[in-house]
Amino acid sequence: MDSEYSKGVLLTPLLSRLLSPRSQIHGPTPCEPPARLVPTIGIDSHEMVVQDNLLIASPYTTPPHLLDLRTISKPNQLLAKALTSFKQVRRDYATAPYAESFNWAHVIEALRVLVDEECAFSWDQQSFYIIVFRSQLPPATDQTHLANLDKLSHAGANQSGGLLKYWFGVPDVNGRNLATCVWRSRDDARKGGSGVDHVQAMRETMKLYTEWNVERLNLIIGKGVCHWEIVELTS
After folding, report:
1. Dihedrals phi, psi of 88, to nearest 5 degrees
2. pLDDT digits (tens, 9 = 90+) for 71-95
3. Measured between alpha carbons, how far is residue 85 from residues 45, 91, 127, 153 in Å?
4. What's this model's pTM, rounded to 2 decimal places?
């Protein structure tokens, strides 16, 4: 069992403009100077901060699952807040290309707005680590048991630090689903996947799937949040 994942995957990479071993998945053309767009919908990150800088960054809202913004740097704080607007944009997200399945363009625009609101702060190029977990469950799966295992797994991963976002969907008519994590770094993901609670929950969870796969990606956000791309890691 891979110790890095928290949940999803089977993604077909597109042609790359980057050097090996990474292949480009998605991202707009770089711009100079940074374009500033007017958001079509508001940023709700303030509503997601429950108290004492604790951010709701997953479907779970109890204390063990909240992201403590004081434990991460400013760029990570801002991205985590922008990711509160993260959602799917197509119904077949469980099998469709990852970057096309979610509102990444909106998340990045939300990040631009948050960066602009910061005084005496400039965004340097940053890289973040994404895990996608695609799975298929048999029809008779005990969803309550699975949900409990997932909750235990997330609590363990979150306590290790650096987990900026966790999202999961609902199985389709064929039992296929997708879950995804955005981490501060690959090292954080490794630590999160090696905790006792996480490992125990994952061992139990993997017994329930008829099919599963994991993909590892990098989210690269350029200087000034001027451009961004999601690239597949092949090693």
Report:
1. -75, 150
2. 999 999 999 999 999 999 999 999 9
3. 8, 17, 19, 23
4. 0.81
3-state SS string over 108-172?
Answer: HHHHHHHHHHCCCCCCCCEEEEEEEEEEECCCCCCHHHHHHHHHHHHHHHHHHCCEEEEEECCCC
pLDDT for residue 47 is more than 60: no
Residue type, 232: E
Mapped to the 3 state alphabet, what secondary structure does 63-121 carry?
Answer: HHHCEEHHHCCHHHHHHHHHHHHCCECCCCCCCCCHHHHECHHHHHHHHHHHHHHCCCC
What is the C-alpha R_g of the chain?
17
Residue 132 is encoded by which pair of tokens?
A: 């996608």
DSSP secondary structure code for residue 225 in this structure: G
| Tokens 């999160």 sit on residue | 192
